[in-house]
Known about the structure:
- By secondary structure, the protein is an alpha+beta fold.
- The chain folds into two domains: about 1-100 and about 120-130 and about 285-320, 4-Layer Sandwich (Double-stranded beta-helix), CATH 3.60.130.10; about 145-275, Clavaminate synthase-like (Double-stranded beta-helix), CATH 3.60.130.10.
- The chain has nine helices and 20 strands.
- Strands 1-2-3-4-17-8-20-6-5 form a nine-stranded mixed sheet, with helices on one face.
- The chain is globular.
- The two termini are about 35 Å apart.
Amino acid sequence: MTTVSERQDTALAIEEGFPVRVSPAAAPLSLARAGDSLRALVARRLEQDGALLFSGFTDPGVAGFQAFAASFGHPLLSYEFGSTPRSRVAGEVYTSTEYPAHRSIPLHNEQAYTTEWPMRIWFYCAQAAAVGGETPIADSRRIYQRIDPALRRRFAERGLRYVRNYGNGLDVDWPQVFNTDDPRQVEAFCRSKGIDLHWKDDGGLRTSQRCQAVARHPRTGDWVWFNQAHLFHVSALEPDMQEVLLETVGEDNLPRNVYYGDGTPLESSALEDIRGVLDECRICFPWRTGDVLMLDNMLCAHAREPFQGPRKVVVAMAEGHGCRLGDLPGEDTRNP
């Protein structure tokens, strides 16, 4: 463990690892009071390490967490075109994915299923679960390197197409996803993002968007595995649920599915290989109430473990970034 100190009362203790653990060298110390030192540390280390855990500081509360996340120089982002149910807690702070406590959420990079995403994401543990509830993380550079090169090249060159059918009791309703109940605003949003949409006869909505499978970090130049194919594909469902949905609504009306960019089917075997790599790369650490985890969203994926008892983890995001359809990384034939 090393100590970073410009002033004794705001000195920081640094424990190397993944994530890098940052604590007060001499408690008590708030995130706000240590802000200058923490921002300097983030500038040096976040794009090197991908994940920083601020632990042992006085509990900031939701308002203090929001102020801390906003102090890094970028306005906090609203949660647009989301794929999971969330609720606004305060300002641009949201609940983490509202998903049954007994289920795990696999590793993923936030909004990697579209062509625009936040570069930075913060998680604040307002209440740690009595049992479980960890937020595992994984280095997206390591995942990229461990994916079979032939499979990686195929995904990169062909890209991915995500197809979503909203609502009908099976998935998030489109007014919640698009933050509006005005179809014209939905259509304008989709046009601006290169998303194809189709209004169905029953009032439902289907969208389709071609996206990247890999991406290159705009500042570090690192290639990362950056998609959510393993989450969107029908094979992510339990076998019984797959069977029921395919029999009752058919493949075209599944809540979500993913194909190669040209619309041809993805191989379930390839996705199983990808899930295996993700499992090999995941790192799990325990939450403590008051902890704040800061990730570079391109360099680090995150997940959620099942839990028992009350748990409250909230999220903030900043620094939107993305790629145009003509600049998808998979179109770069020099990509290894």
